[in-house]
Amino acid sequence: MKLILLGPPGAGKGTQAKILEDKFGCVQLSTGDMLRAAAAAGTDVGKQAETIMARGDLVPDEIVVGIISDRVDEPDCAKGFILDGFPRNVAQAEALDNMLGEKDLSLDAVVELAVDDAILVSRIEKRAAETEGGPRADDNVDALRKRLEVYHAQTAPLIGYYGEKGVLKTVDGMADIDEVSGEIAAALS
Ligand code: ADP
User: Fold this and answer.
1) Residue 120 to residues 92, 116, 117, 147, 184, Cα–Cα distance (Å)
2) Which pLDDT score is estimated for 128?
3) Which among 7, 30, 8 is positioned nearest to 17, based on CA atoms?
4) pLDDT in the model for residue 158
5) What are the C-alpha distances in Å from 88 to residues 32, 53, 75, 93, 153?
6) What is the pLDDT of residue 183?
7) Quick count: other Cβ atoms within 10 Å of Cβ 55?
8) CB 115 within 8 A of CB 12
9) Domains in the chain, ordered, with CATH?
10) How far, in Å, from the CA of 64 to the mean position of ligand 1?
11) CA dihedral 172, 58, 148, 110 (to 10 degrees)
12) Radius of gyration, CA atoms only, the chain
C-alpha cells in the first residue's frame, strides 16, 4: 500500500499513519520526524532546517524531495509506505510524481483528513502541554498560526491536484481516532 496522508498540522496524520503501519505492514515516512531527527543529530541539513521549522515555514523543496527519494529506496519501503507531511506544495507533488515514475512505483490513494482550524489550534495546544521533555519548538501560538497559514496557501491546493487525478479520498478527521481509522480503511477497500 502506497499512500499519502494529507491534512493540516494537528489533523492526526501521525496517529493514523501508525495505525495504518500496523494494519498494512507498510512504513510511515514523516518528513517532519526526519527533519527533527536531522536537527537533533546536528547534520548540515538538520541545522538548516531547524530555524525554518521553528518559525513554521517550509524547508526547501530540494531537501525534503531528496530525503524522501533516498528513504523510498530503503528495503523496508518495498512493502509500501505512508507519506506523512509530504508533499506539502504543488512543486513537491510534481517532484513526487516524477520520482515515483522513475522508480516505477505508483500511489494507491491520497487520504485527506479534514479538520476545522479551531479544532487544530486546541489539539496542538493540548499536544504541547502533554509532550514529554517539553513541547516541540514549533508548537507555540506564533509558529502554529504560521503553519496553518502555510497549509492553506501551499498545501491545501493539493486537494484539487489529487482530486483531478481521481485518487483523493476525504475522511472526516474530527471524529474519534477509531472512527477515523475505520473510515480510512473503508475508503481504501
Ligand atoms: P505538522 O504537520 O504538525 O505541522 P510536521 O512534523 O509534519 O508537523 O512538520 C513540521 C515542520 O517540518 C513543518 O512546519 C516544516 O517546517 C517542516 N517540514 C515537514 N515536512 C516538510 C515538507 N514536505 N516540506 C517542507 N517542510 C517540511
Assistant:
1) 24, 7, 5, 11, 19
2) 86
3) 30
4) 98
5) 11, 13, 25, 7, 10
6) 97
7) 12
8) yes
9) 2-188 (3.40.50.300)
10) 9
11) -10
12) 16
- How many other CB atoms are found less than 10 A from the CB of residue 157? 13
Rounded to 10 degrees, the C-alpha dihedral 160/164/167/169 comes to 40
Q: How far is CA 44 from CA 10, 32, 65, in A?
A: 28, 16, 16
Residue 36 Cα: closest atom of ligand 1: 12
Cα end-to-end distance, the chain, whole Å: 11
Q: Ligand 1 — pocket residues by CB below 6 A?
A: 9-10, 31-32, 35, 52-53, 56-59, 64, 85-86, 88, 92, 138, 147
Q: Compute, in degrees rounded to 10, the torsion defined by CA atoms 158, 4, 37, 125.
A: 70
10-residue mean pLDDT series, the chain (189 residues): 96 96 96 97 96 96 97 96 98 98 97 94 87 86 90 98 97 96 96
12 backbone φψ class: left, alpha, beta (φ>0; ψ -120 to 50): left
pLDDT of residue 134: 85
Nearest atom in ligand 1 to the alpha carbon of residue 150 is 14
Residue nearest to atom 4 of ligand 1 (CA): 9
β-strand partners of 3: 82, 109
Count of all residues that appear for the chain in the document: 189
Q: Report the pLDDT value the prediction gives residue 122, as an integer from 0 to 100.
A: 87
